[in-house]
Amino acid sequence: MKLGxxxxxxxxxxxxxNSYRKRYDPHYSLxxxxxTLKSPFDAEESDLKQLTxxxxxxxxxxxxFNFHVSKVKSFHPVNNVIYFKVDPNDTLTALNQxxxxxxxxxxxxxxxxxxxxxxxxxxxxxxxxxxYNSLTMLSIDHEETVDRFHLLYxxxxxxxxxxxxxxxxxxx
Length: 172
Prior knowledge:
Elements: E1 2-7, H1 11-24, E2 35-42, H2 48-60, E3 65-74, E4 82-86, H3 90-98, H4 102-105, E5 116-120, H5 125-135, E6 142-146, E7 148-154, E8 160-167
Antiparallel strand pairs: 1-2, 1-7, 3-4, 3-6, 4-5, 7-8
GO molecular function, one term: hydrolase activity, acting on ester bonds
EC number: 3.1.-.-
InterPro entries: 2H_phosphoesterase_YjcG-like (IPR050580), Cyclic_Pdiesterase (IPR009097), YjcG (IPR022932)
C-alpha cells in the first residue's frame, strides 16, 4: 500500500491555499493542502502496526512548534510547481530527518527537504510564468502552531485519507 506522512495546516491556511489549488492544481480533489514530511512510500499492511508504533515514538520526542509561511516560491526549472514557502526551522527539519530513517520508512528522501504548501502544479511553462508572476504579488505572513502529524494512505481512486494521527509530545 502507498503511504505518506504530512502536516495539515489550520483551516484558515488550507482555505487560502485551496483558493489557488482549485484553479491550478489537478490534485486538488485528491488530498487537502499539507506539508509533506515523508513523500509517498510503499509498505505492507502487515507492517502498519510496527510503523505506527515507531511514529508514536517519534511524535512523543517533539513538543508542538510554530511554523511561518512567508512568500510564494517555485521549483522551476526543475518542475513547474508553485508553492507557499514554509520557513525552515530546527524542529521541522529534525522531525523530517527522524521520519527518513531506514528502520522507520525505508531511508533517505529522493529530494532535499523544502517545507511548503503546493498551490499549483503540472502547469505548462507559459502558465507557470503567468501564475507565478501573479502570485508573487501576494503578501503572505502567516504563523501557526503544529501539534500533530498524520500517516495517510492512498485509496484506489488516487485520493489520500488519514490512517492515523500522532500528537506531538504525547504517549500513544
